[in-house]
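User: Look at the shape:
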Amino acid sequence: MEIKTFYNKMSDVELLGLIGYLEDWPVNTVYETAQRQVYPESQLKTLLTFDAWIFKQPPLPEIVRQELVRACELHDSMGNMTSLKIQAFCSRYGWRIAFWSFLILWWVW
């Protein structure tokens, strides 16, 4: 599966939460930073604040969403998501590995 496709399947809140986790920032700071990256200062006053947005949860504008995806790809290329990938692998396949290891050890003894 291509990584870009995976990011497109994530909701806006999940993307904000992922970047917040990677940057160690609160989600509202990630939202405001993404808005500041793509909109001029004069237009920022007309946009929804984080509190209003999270209450209504309309879809993020595509340009803001693409900025969040770009940030995720940047973190992935720097290797910051390695621990998340290991955790995902272990949560998906860890019980199978443990189960079969137990059976093999039981059979060998």
Q: What stands out?
A: The chain has two domains: 3-78, 81-109.
